[in-house]
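Need a sequence for this fold. Nothing fancy.
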């Protein structure tokens, strides 16, 4: 391969710049080639408030993919949870690096923990998945909380807490860690309380499907166990026919015995945003040995969830 600089297409947001910068360093380490960042403005960046109306799924991703297909950049980095579940044939998911912390967290006033929030606490989140699970937990544990729909970037969201408008906001640990603001977390939400979005905490490194040399080079950053886990999670999401704004949580984690990975557990949840009904199921078995097995596992769990009424819960929307 040549020693020409590789062009990495990235969104301009703090999170995108941080994760692209980190991947750029890793890629230049494994390829020995310099990597230059090429900033691309996405429709999701200019029209954030209208994300719900324009459908959510993939708005952050489309502009980067278009730049790849036009040959303006060589590869791109996405938050895996923002990727649509269908992979275009012209693009290759060259690497899924090892996952960051998949959990959701809260940033609350006065360093409060979730379960110490006072009666009537207002918790900001724009995510129906987070609302559904927080409200379900509150109902089951006698907590009195109000989930308040909010949008915006990390600064905007944490700003609602700093200026006293909200008692807490919910964010992904991975995003805060990547921008160096992990120290603002006041509580980590157990995945037993709030299952993260499918793919949360993982990145996707994408290039065009015809660039075999680049696919092989980027593949050095792939973590096969993360890939198999997110494949099962995304297959569950796809089989539930839900977009990224739907109240679907999924997490595949590996059960290890010392250093040896023994089994994989896939958990899935859907619910109404008020938390009055949830369908939550899990399955545990051998780590899938192929992409197709991981896909099948996600489908199987989705089928069980649908049999328990999951579809009816997803029809309902936050606003
Ligand atoms: N919904 C937007 C989004 N997409 C990816 C992340 C960061 C976490 C990740 O990479 O999974 C976030 C922010 C958040 O949910 O708090």
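Here you go.
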């Amino acid at each position: 391969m040549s020693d020409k600089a590789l062009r990495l297409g990235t969104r301009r947001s703090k999170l995108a710049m941080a994760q692209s910068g980190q991947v750029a360093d890793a890629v230049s380490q494994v390829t020995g080639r310099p990597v230059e960042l090429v900033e691309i403005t996405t429709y999701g960046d200019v029209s954030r408030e209208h994300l719900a109306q324009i459908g959510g799924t993939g708005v952050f991703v489309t502009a980067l993919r278009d730049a790849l297909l036009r040959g303006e950049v060589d590869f791109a980095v996405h938050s895996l949870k923002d990727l649509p579940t269908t992979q275009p044939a012209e693009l290759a998911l060259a690497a899924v690096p090892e996952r960051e912390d998949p959990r959701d967290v809260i940033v609350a006033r006065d360093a409060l923990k979730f379960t110490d929030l006072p009666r009537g606490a207002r918790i900001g989140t724009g995510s129906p998945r987070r609302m559904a699970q927080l409200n379900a937990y509150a109902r089951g544990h006698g907590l009195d909380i109000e989930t308040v729909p909010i949008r915006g970037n990390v600064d905007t969201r944490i700003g609602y807490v700093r200026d006293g408008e909200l008692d807490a906001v919910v964010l992904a640990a991975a995003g805060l860690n990547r921008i160096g603001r992990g120290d603002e977390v006041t509580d980590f939400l157990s995945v037993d309380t709030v299952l993260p979005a499918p793919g949360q905490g993982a990145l996707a490194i994408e290039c065009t499907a015809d660039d075999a040399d680049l696919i092989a080079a980027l593949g050095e950053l792939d973590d096969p166990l993360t890939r198999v886990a997110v494949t099962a999670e995304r297959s569950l999401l796809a089989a539930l026919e839900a977009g990224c704004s739907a109240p679907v949580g999924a997490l595949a984690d590996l059960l290890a015995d010392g250093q040896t990975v023994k089994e994989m557990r896939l958990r899935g949840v859907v619910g109404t945003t008020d938390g009055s009904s949830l369908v939550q199921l899990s399955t545990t078995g051998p780590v899938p040995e192929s992409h197709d097995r991981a896909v099948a596992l996600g489908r199987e769990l989705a089928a069980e969830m649908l049999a328990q009424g999951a579809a009816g819960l997803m029809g309902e929307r936050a606003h």
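For context: The pocket of PBG is lined by residues 79, 81-82, 171-172, 174-175, 200-201 (CB under 6 Å).
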